[in-house]
Specification:
CATH class of the largest domain: Alpha Beta
Helix content: 25-40%
Radius of gyration: 22 Å
Number of strands: 17
Number of helices: 14
Strand order of the largest sheet: 6-2-1-7-17-16
Distance between the termini: 19 Å
Shape: globular
Length: 452
């Protein structure tokens, strides 16, 4: 199939990656973005690639699965990785960014690409009203890429559901509050990263057993925003609301997001019973995200309960947490291996709507689709990366049948087993080394064939 033009719906991480990869190959791209005329429940910034949850791209360690995925993305020319490097802020071993500067940098790079034409309006449907034919305004393009993200409009999600032939799936995602750094009581809170007290990347609010117990009980009793009557709540395991974790047992939070291991309270010289971490939102450290405190508590309850944490009694909230529905398709049933819809081969999906989870994974999916379609535009067929590498494992997850398909972050568990016994720490290194080797061999093969 010849590809000279493409419509990309949604200017999030996946959409921007895909649009730029296509434009770099000479494909004429129209990028549709509904902001600022219309915002999703979680978006507030008119710029592209807005980060609505954390400002962290997670670990940058090369022996982690997500660290390997980022290395592979850098090798493929990811705009997300370039923009992240330009707007990075200290966060220990994590790759964190100033979210405002990051979105502005992505927007600048997209608008500077002459092969991308931006239209600031929503696309409500993929098909023409009352028929199975393509939407006339999309029919003019050789391919359509839906990268509207997990917060796709109700109209577009319904259209996607009609095309897939089954009701689309969904889960709920929660956003953590952000506080003004100047409002944190520094007589109680202290700087430091786990096992690295000299680091100043995180603020830490220590709790004794009584404070922790009261905080947990308040989370259990706090008023929450209810789901709409026709929606069943399904939480993604990797982003559970803090109050939902509290329900699992007294020590769940203390062994999870409030884990005190590796810290010493300067006031007592001892390890706290629990500890709430605050991660800087910007380079000036003027705003802080409450790590692991994504929530569906009502706004009034959030202010009351989170101020119970030592050091946050007078906290001023820059942003309160919220709850929103994330939409994704049952990828193994709805998508072909090249991420096209089985029911509409000229329509492709990219990003979190496919069933990958996380900023990095979403961007990687869009980057892959863009590079794949760009190769086709140049007369090549880009082979799938091997499942032994991070990108290949992530894409394989979208092809693997499951009784109940669920979104997934990249992880070594998605890769083929090593086939040998080793200690957990050693296995991590072995997975990472194998992934690096497999991706390098694949990339060398692709480059030697002149396909990238």
């Amino acid at each position: 199939m010849a590809i000279a033009s493409a419509a990309v719906i949604g200017a999030g991480l996946a959409g921007c990656e895909c649009a730029l990869a296509l434009a770099d190959a000479g494909v004429a791209v129209t990028l549709f973005e509904m902001k600022p005329g219309r915002f999703s429940p979680a978006h507030t910034n008119a710029d592209f690639a807005e980060l609505v949850c954390s400002n962290s791209f997670r670990s940058d360690a090369p022996d982690s699965a997500v660290g390997r995925l980022k290395e592979e993305m850098r090798a493929l020319g990811s705009v997300t990785m370039r923009a992240a490097a330009a707007t990075r802020i200290p966060a220990g071993k994590a790759l964190a960014v100033d979210r405002q500067l990051f979105a502005a940098e992505i927007t600048r790079r997209v608008l500077a690409q002459p092969g991308v034409r931006v239209e600031r309006r929503a696309i409500a449907a993929l098909e023409a009203p009352g028929s199975g034919e393509r939407n006339p305004e999309l029919a003019a393009y050789d391919v359509t890429v839906v990268s509207a993200g997990p917060l796709a409009s109700d109209e577009l999600a319904a259209s996607l559901g009609r095309l897939t032939g089954e009701e689309h799936l969904y889960f709920y995602d929660a956003i953590a509050p952000v506080v003004d750094g100047a409002s944190v009581d520094m007589d109680i809170a202290f700087w430091g990263a786990r096992y690295q007290p000299e680091d100043c990347d995180y603020l830490n609010c220590p709790m004794n057993r009584e404070e922790y117990s009261a905080f947990r009980q308040a989370l259990l009793d706090g008023g929450r925003v209810s789901a709409r009557e026709f929606e069943e709540e399904r939480h993604f395991e990797g982003c559970m609301p803090v109050e939902a974790l509290a329900e699992r047992g007294f020590m769940t939070l203390a062994f999870g997001p409030l884990k005190p291991v590796g810290f010493t309270d300067p006031r007592t010289g001892a390890r706290p019973f629990a500890l709430l971490q605050l991660r800087a939102e910007d380079a000036n450290k003027s705003m802080f995200n409450l790590v692991g405190c994504q929530t569906k508590l009502t706004h009034g309850e959030q202010e009351r309960i989170f101020r119970m944490a030592p050091g946050l009694a007078r906290a001023e909230f820059v942003r309160l947490g919220s709850m929103h529905r994330n939409t994704f398709v049952n990828a193994p049933k709805a998508l072909a291996p090249d991420l096209s819809l089985l029911a509409a081969p000229r329509v492709y999906l990219a990003g979190q709507i496919t069933g990958v989870e996380g900023y990095v994974e979403s961007a990687a999916c869009g980057l892959w689709l863009g590079r794949q379609l760009a190769a086709r535009a140049c007369g090549f067929e880009l082979p799938l990366p091997p499942e032994e590498c991070a990108l290949g494992a992530l894409l394989a997850h979208l092809r693997r049948p499951a009784r109940r398909f669920q979104p997934s972050n990249v992880q070594f568990g998605l890769m083929p087993d090593l086939g040998e016994k080793a200690r957990k720490t050693k296995r991590k290194t072995l997975y990472a080394e194998r992934a690096e080797s497999a991706f390098g061999a694949w990339l060398d093969e692709v480059r030697s064939a002149g396909q990238t």
